[in-house]
Amino acid sequence: MSAVLEERRVAAPPAVSVIIPAYREAENLPVIIPRLSEALGEAHLAAEIIVVDDYSGDGTREICGDLSQQYPLRLETRESERGLSSAVLHGLRRARGDVLIVMDADLSHPPEKVPELVEALDEADVDFVIGSRYVHGGGTDEDWGLLRWLNSKVATLMARPFTKAADPMAGFFALRRTSFRHADETAELNPIGYKIGLELMVKCNCRRVREVPIQFSNRLHGKSKLSLREQLNYVRHLGRLAEYKLRHLPKLLKFAVVGASGSVVDLLAFAASLALLPVPVARALAIWVAMTWNFYWNRRWTFFESREHGILWQYAMFCGACLIGAVVSWGVSVGLWHLIPFFNEYPIVAAIIGIIAGTLFNFVASSRLVFRKSSSEAAGR
Ligand code: GDD
Ligand code: MN
User: Fold this and answer.
1) Which domain holds residue 357?
2) Could you tell me the distance, in angstroms and rounded to a whole number, from the CA of residue 70 to the centre of ligand 1?
């Protein structure tokens, strides 16, 4: 069996990469690697296994050297960094498979379940799979004390605003490499927490989560590295995820302030030009002046950091977006007024909803297109 895998490893890039963060797991690796390879082989999955070790100094390096003779294993040793999440990111960035799996080294996660995770991810409407303790058929080994159980439940509840998954804390999960790559390029992946799965689910924007039940076993050898400090880090991590989720809010508020000031400019310009021009021309002039005013301040203030396009191109796109935004605003208010009797009586409410819809449209178009950040800026590089 191992010879077959060896052959596949040389022949083509693997379909599946299994990333195993391992710190002082020298005793567990000789157990998990053969079991995992066998499970992958039986499912006919061409795979690579990447062990990410943080210079454990417990013989991990020698053991992986031996194992790699027989199994499709690669060892990544980080010399100066430590930490579970950053180790996982390190492995994910070096993986070549289309499907990425992350699991612990201590046999808490049954390697035999890996093909099921891969299969679940095969479905088009799934973009993240969790090896889950908390769905029907899953569970944990008996001697989890009340305290650890309670701890896990509270931590799970705290993740609720970010995901509906029953076991978002899990360290056993699968996602497509394309999802990971996209998040790695556009969002800042933050390795402070222990909960790299949750981080990825949120930042890869993986909403279609499937949970495969697993039995979470007690670790085979050695001690857990999850410390109280990591639990505090988890709370900090949730804070950062909340900031991430609300990251557009300050910009939206600035955009709204500019828009409101633009309405005042519009009225002033209209009043001033009426003395010289006929109404239709004065109206058009005032709208154009206000649009230019909005462009200037949005470019200078709201989206000051984006310089992907030249100013003339930005201006043309901004005016285009505003015109379409006006159509959206008109369409929504007239549509509501036409379809719902309530708005017949209160057309002003329909107009307000239309204005909100038009502004949101303008905002999305402005941030995604007109004032888009280049991908290197977005990644903070
Ligand atoms: N490279 C590296 N560096 N690996 C690490 C480090 C580190 O600093 N810290 C931990 N690991 C590895 C361990 O060797 C193990 O393979 C895996 O990460 C999980 O670490 P454990 O210390 O066994 O954690 P746990 O069993 O308490 O927590 C597990 O279950 C939790 C759910 O109860 C993990 O899977 C968590 O992610 C999960 O939330
Ligand atoms: Mn463990």
Assistant:
1) 249-380
2) 25
Return d(Cα 151, Cα 169) in angstroms, integer.
11
337 forms beta bridges with none
Asked whether residue 196 falls in the same domain as residue 295, the answer is no
What does the pLDDT look like over 89-104, one tens digit per residue? 999 999 999 999 999 9
Q: Quick: pLDDT tens for 8-48.
A: 445 578 999 999 999 999 999 999 999 999 999 999 999 99
How large is the C-alpha radius of gyration of the chain? 27
Q: How many CB atoms lie within 10 A of CB 246?
A: 10
pTM beyond cutoff 0.85:
no
Position 114 confidence tier, pLDDT thresholds 50, 70, 90: very high
Same domain, 162 and 200: yes
204: left (phi over 0), alpha (psi -120 to 50) or beta: alpha
Of the residues 197, 228, 246, the one at which a domain ends: 246
Of residues 194, 190, 219, the one with CA closest to residue 203: 190
pLDDT-above-90 percentage for the chain: 77
- Read off the pLDDT of residues 323-377 as tens digits, 9 standing for 90 and up: 999 999 999 999 999 999 999 999 899 999 999 999 999 999 999 899 987 655 5
CATH code of the domain covering residue 63? 3.90.550.10
Q: Cα(275) to centroid of ligand 2, in Å?
A: 78
**Residue with tokens 């390029």, as numbered in its chain:** 185
Residue 217 Cα to ligand 1 midpoint, Å, equals 13
- The closest-lying atom of ligand 1 relative to the alpha carbon of residue 223 is 22
Nearest to residue 237, comparing CAs of 65, 83, 353? 83
Q: Closest residue (by CA) to atom 35 of ligand 1? A: 171
Final residue in a domain of this structure, among 218, 246, 274: 246
